[in-house]
Amino acid sequence: MSIPADLKYVASHEWIRVEADGSATIGITQHAQELLGDIVFVELPEVGATFSAEDQAGSIESVKAASDVYSPISGEVLAVNEALTSSPELVNSAPYGAWFFKIKPSNPAELETLLTAEQYAGEIA
What we know:
4 helices; 18% helix; CATH 2.40.50.100
């Protein structure tokens, strides 16, 4: 299973990529989409919404189950990936490209608490 080393992770199976401008892009891991199966619906947060770390930020439904998507860090939503509303299957075909939302971190220290690829691999082993 692919677990990109350049991303950070949380045990609830979201990945986080810190961008050059300090924003963070968030999606779900390959492991999560494999557990869910074929994705049929994605609910995204509103741009401008604010979340604390571990708040529910959206949801995802598959032919097998429904699951919440959590914000791994606190901050304000800057953008959402509208392509997922019309093509939710992108989460299955490219989980590390099919991001859910971008957030402006309000507490950058939270980034230090995220899991490395190696730590996340241990979580799902």
